[in-house]
């Protein structure tokens, strides 16, 4: 298990796939750990990408600073990892908190990137997100990691995903509970106490950027992704049908396919952002469709109803 | 060696030698905290924060009490030597680089309590099949859950305005305490066939 060193801290990482191939770097969400990208490793390596995953400071097997975790330190850790990848093209993607770290990296180190994919992401704390974040922190403090998981599962995953797992949710939660410590999660959450919006800096992100947002994302709804689409010059927004905040867990085949296609299009010179809004296919390999003209993409996807 | 307790007996209870070692460690750590909180606790509360100190003292005593009663004790020859080494680590130590002696002692106690509450996770040693109705199993779950709450007082104090001018010193002291106590915990477990990931 290889580790990078950042000061006295160690960051656990994993590299898979051919050494000279274009690389995808995947950044975890708040309560996640690197193993949750296993399906992405497999799918992207099969498409001839190198894949880098890691545990952020405070997560999983990386060191857990005891009192303070600065988001700048996460960006430095990410830079160390990207430094391990040589000089080839690097595509960076992150989910939720990891998407925010990816945005920060793209703002400060954008020249090193060939493409950026923020997923279920935000550049500012809307009142809803701020209050939800506060409530989640209080939940963690009063009820521990398990209670935080209990809040996040129904908020971020669909009924279709949850229903067959209802009688074995403890086993679904167990690994996350084992590898994440209350104090470390709390430190990650409290790295937002002095958070300043990134919105004014988004225009400096010059790389092709595909923004992915679940149609039914409650935690970080469309308006937060719209901020990214409007301010990042070479961007497009792709809405994942019937998806919630944690669509990377629920629809790994589709999300990995979108990641691969984006990078292949960028490398081939086919990709154009144009701040367009797209609807992703329901299944991997399907065609993307432009969001219907004349409809408001800040609402749900307009779809023909079916009679019961 | 395993990351979890075991092998469990036919009723899915933790083997008594593992119960004894873990309970002895936890009683030593939480007992030391109880003593130090008791020493700091005045007979008459003068400030609002002392109500939290009172709560911390009683929770620590509760942890010791529940372990004394829930553990299936067996002789453990290594305990004599180990207990001495543990007790030396709990000894009150002022945090370095804080000139105010009272504040330094308070920070020292808070770093010890934070490290015990944050980095010692006894319930994480329980395998999935551990008997949820067993008192020792329930005690470990309760201790880990309560530790997460008790730790909040230490976090508030260590991140608070009084210690803000000494942020680097406090962080360094806390990291040292975590490393020190994490090593003690790992060493104690290793002797009863349990290995946990540890910082090198």
How does this model look, in words?
The complex is a heterodimer of chains A (308) and B (200). Chain A has a single domain, classed as Alpha/Beta hydrolase fold, catalytic domain (Rossmann fold, 3-Layer(aba) Sandwich), CATH 3.40.50. Helices cover 39% and strands 17% of the residues of chain A. Chain A contains 10 helices and 10 strands. In chain A, strands 1-2-4-3-5-6-7-8-9-10 form a 10-stranded mixed β-sheet, with helices on both faces. In chain A, helix 1 packs across helix 10, helix 2 crosses helix 3 and helix 4 packs antiparallel against helix 7. Chain B has 200 residues and is mostly helical. Chain B is built from 6 helices and no strands. In chain B, helix 1 packs antiparallel against helix 2, helix 1 packs antiparallel against helix 4 and helix 4 packs across helix 6. The longest helix of chain B is centred in the N-terminal third of the chain and has 25 residues. The relative contact order of chain B is 0.19. Classes of the chains: A alpha/beta (308), B mainly alpha (200). At the A-B interface, helix 4, helix 6 and helix 7 of A face helix 4, helix 5 and helix 6 of B.
